[in-house]
Write a structure and sequence with these properties.
The structure holds 2 protein chains of 2 kinds.
Chain A lengths: L4 E7 L3 H12 L4 E4 L14 H6 L13 E6 L2 E6 H4 L30 H5 L14 H16 L28 H12 L4 E2 L34 H11 L3 E4 L2 E7 L8 E6 L5 E11 L3 H9 L21 E14 H4 L1 H7 L8 E3 L4 E4 L3 E4 L1 E7 L4 H6 L3 E2 L2 E2 L2 H13 L1 E11 L7 E9 L5 E6 L4 H20 L3 E7 L8 E3 L24 E3 L14 H19 L3
Parallel strand pairs in A: 1-2, 1-9, 2-6, 3-19, 9-22
Antiparallel strand pairs in A: 3-4, 5-11, 7-8, 8-9, 10-17, 10-20, 10-21, 11-14, 12-13, 14-17, 15-16, 18-19
Chain B lengths: L17 H4 L4 H22 L14 H10 L5 H17 L9 H13 L1 H19 L11 H5 L17
Helix pairs in contact in B: 2-3, 2-4, 3-6, 4-6, 5-6
Classes of the chains: A alpha+beta, B mainly alpha.
């Protein structure tokens, strides 16, 4: 039988894999997307808290596939498998990846995020470098992603808002709860600028995707109307419609085979249902498996030409993993303070808060100093019923049950509503945050698992605390009770980047400015691995934009059809 | 940074009872569960009694939910063992009479058990599983007629699931 050779083989179907597949398929190339998870159609997504939030249904069982996490304990690095800790580093292993499950709060990085070292200088203990490209090079792709994904919002002036080439968002903002107005008013009192959050959620119908229906359960769930701009809805479906895309779900790639120094020939993949292995051949290979897993795949692809891992002559592969720094906090707005009428408006289901604050993105204060800050998102506490009920089970250090529990839970649900804030700051890249291969642990396919050493730079927590204090003041001004914030150096496992830095020097970076491996010209890494620094916004929009940029370059390499 | 170790899921005092803890097949789990079901049922009924502000464990068939969700392949196998072990420990402490104790005695027994590190964690686990029963979609067999949601003046999101565990 003649072997099939795809023009482009993409490993992973999330935001970056979808963006590359879309561009290549539209340009007429034959593309294979290999996704380890299964395909869940729009109609199949439900708001099933038990299945989607409380069980490992759309991520692998940690007993089958896991990571080991290295943390410093009593001065020594100790690795613990995640099947022991329960701390999963898998995110949405289904077609479309975790973009199916995002809340879709979308922000562009600021031009200064591309030149952080030039702007703020070196920080001791942090490996900050400037990006090899500027915001100007990324901007057209931010604009393209905005249109393709369908980002709703409203352009507002703010000194830290990045410049844009188009006058406004393609769709108006999604609908808001009355609390947004209260928030705006209180911010104004405090001299803070509140901004409408751009969302990768359609506020109006568009082609076969329907507007948001305000289900009250958005983040962590797939969207039942197609409003959410997931890779599956916005990119893979139109790519499939071209007839050029072969989408292989339940297909896990174990390693890439490079029969010579500068070329990958095929991916060795296993069908996760049957266990059968096969080789998938391509002219170009694009990794889009999420940062820590793309690096692991390259490390697991070591051979005699690449003894330290594929495309790792720099020895930088897996290094400088970054997350989103920051933390979160919340406070409760109570019925008795607001009065019945206003409380009833507050309790209207489904509508969003949709507010962000950029005022502390860059700090330059006569007393506090000059340093990089971050973005803050304000939202309702997630409305998951079981999770919220479980917040009420403790009283004075003991479990509450019976009448005490009943009163506590019903009060929490009927007498108050919680407003939450999430802070996004730079996670400073450092020598003790990286992914390597575990020497002893292997997954169920016999491949070494990724070992993640996770240590934050002390500056990250300082910045988080600085911003949290300001956020708490807004909640106080709104009359919230029981305000608290939790800023820690724990990494959020769904916001992960780095590990395959891009740069101009092959000695200090894995990828070139087009996210093409310096060592292997037919190999690209399109997910967030390329980011030397992560900016202080959620990564999603930047991942979409950069993958579209990378895809354009691949089209140029292959020659237009 | 604090790792959440599974060490806390081991009942050291019960290492001798390991035969039932190796329950790999659902039939052996069912057998192991059957031996502790009266204890677990009695604990859930004490936590969620009749005539409270929340629906009772009895009316919501919370014990059946607990068994069925633990039996599903998506359930953490270490926690499955832990639930069985913890119930055995409680039964042992109360000389097998816990289900028959009057309410005040049950309260005393559970508060005393809560004082022990493993007992406290086990009770928290039973609480989590019971809350999952009361507030999951009714397709899972509890939260009957959405009584749990109604008690909190809330409801699940649309679309609702048409199969359990996304038909896994």
């Amino acid at each position: 039988m003649r072997k099939e050779v795809y023009d482009v083989v993409i490993v992973g179907s999330g935001a970056s894999g979808g963006a590359v597949a879309y561009t290549l398929c539209k340009a007429g190339y034959r593309v294979a997307v290999l996704e380890k998870g299964r395909f869940i159609r729009r109609e199949e997504f439900s708001k099933d808290e038990l299945a989607y939030v409380r069980r490992d249904i759309i991520t692998p069982s940690l007993f089958d596939e896991y990571h080991t996490i290295e943390e410093r304990v009593d001065g020594k690095w100790v690795a613990t498998p995640t099947y022991e800790s329960g701390w999963s580093f898998w995110n949405g292993n289904i077609v479309g990846g975790s973009s199916n499950l995002m809340s879709g709060m979308f922000h562009r990085m600021h031009p200064d995020d591309f030149r952080l070292k030039s702007k703020y200088g070196a920080i001791a203990g942090a490996n900050i470098v400037d990006w090899p490209i500027s915001y100007e090079e990324m901007e057209p792709y931010y604009a393209l992603a905005e249109t393709l994904i369908g980002i709703s919002g409203k352009v507002q002036k703010h000194p830290f808002e990045p410049p844009r080439s188009t006058p406004d968002f393609p769709q108006p903002p999604t609908r808001e709860n009355i609390v947004s107005k209260w928030f705006d008013k209180r911010c104004k009192t405090l001299g803070i600028t509140s901004l409408v959050t751009p969302r990768a959620i359609l506020s109006e119908n568009r082609e076969d995707r329907h507007a948001c229906y305000y289900s009250n359960f958005c983040g962590s769930y797939g969207c039942g109307s197609g409003a959410k701009g997931s890779s599956r809805e916005a990119l893979l479906k139109p790519a499939l419609a071209t007839g050029n895309l072969t989408l292989m779900s339940n297909t896990h790639v174990k390693f890439l085979h490079a029969p010579e120094k500068k070329r990958v020939a095929y991916a060795v993949a296993v069908n996760t249902l049957t266990g059968q292995e096969k080789k998938i051949y391509g002219t170009i290979f694009v990794l889009a498996a999420q940062a820590h897993e793309s690096a692991r795949l390259l490390l697991n692809s070591a051979n005699r030409y690449h003894p330290d891992g594929l495309a790792n002559s720099s020895k930088e592969l897996g290094k400088n993993l970054v997350f989103s720094g920051g933390g979160a906090g919340q406070g409760e707005l109570h019925r008795e303070s607001l009065g019945e009428k206003e409380f009833a408006s507050l309790m209207q289901r489904g509508l969003f808060v949709n507010r962000s604050v950029l005022d502390w993105y860059f700090i330059d204060h006569w007393w506090d100093g000059r340093f990089k800050g971050g973005l803050v998102e304000f939202m309702f506490e997630h409305q998951n019923i079981i999770s919220r009920a479980l917040k009420c089970t403790e009283e004075e250090g003991k479990l509450a049950w019976g009448d005490a529990l009943g009163e506590k839970v019903t009060n929490y649900f009927t007498q108050a509503k919680s407003i939450r804030f999430e802070i996004f700051t730079d996670w400073l890249p450092n020598d003790n945050c990286f992914v390597s291969l575990d020497e002893t642990h292997k997954d169920k396919y016999g491949m070494p698992v990724g070992k993640l050493r996770l240590q934050a730079h002390p500056q990250d927590v300082r910045v988080g605390r600085y911003i949290a204090q300001k956020c708490e003041k807004i909640l106080e001004e709104m009359g919230a009770k029981n305000i608290y914030s939790a800023i820690s150096s724990d990494p959020p496992q769904n916001l992960i980047a780095g590990g395959c830095r891009f740069g101009n020097d092959p000695k200090t970076s894995v990828l070139n400015r087009y996210c093409q491996a310096h060592d292997v010209p037919n190999l690209f890494v399109a997910d967030a691995s390329f980011m030397p620094t992560g900016g202080s916004v959620p990564y999603s929009w930047t991942i979409y934009a950069n993958a579209l940029r990378v895809a354009d370059h691949i089209v140029q390499l292959l020659g237009k059809r | 940074m604090q790792m959440r170790r599974r060490d806390f899921l081991i009942f050291g005092s019960l290492l001798g009872a390991a035969t039932c803890l190796e329950a790999k097949e659902s039939s052996s789990f069912a057998k192991a569960f059957g031996s502790v079901e009266p204890t677990i049922r009695a604990v859930q009924e004490h936590m969620f009694p009749e005539n409270g502000m929340l629906p009772s464990a009895v009316s919501m068939q919370a014990t059946r939910f607990l068994f069925e969700t633990m039996q599903h392949k998506s359930f953490d196998r270490d926690i499955r063992k832990f639930v069985i072990e913890g119930a055995k420990e409680l039964a042992l402490r109360e000389h097998g009479k816990f289900p028959c104790l009057p309410a005040e005695e049950k309260e005393r027994a559970l508060r005393a058990y809560e004082e022990t590190p493993q007992g406290g964690r086990w009770l928290s686990r039973i609480m989590i599983l019971s809350m999952e029963a009361l507030f999951s979609d009714p397709i899972y067999g509890s939260n009957i007629d959405e009584a749990g949601w109604k008690a909190l003046h809330t409801e699940g999101g649309q679309p609702r699931p048409s199969t359990r565990y996304i038909a896994l």
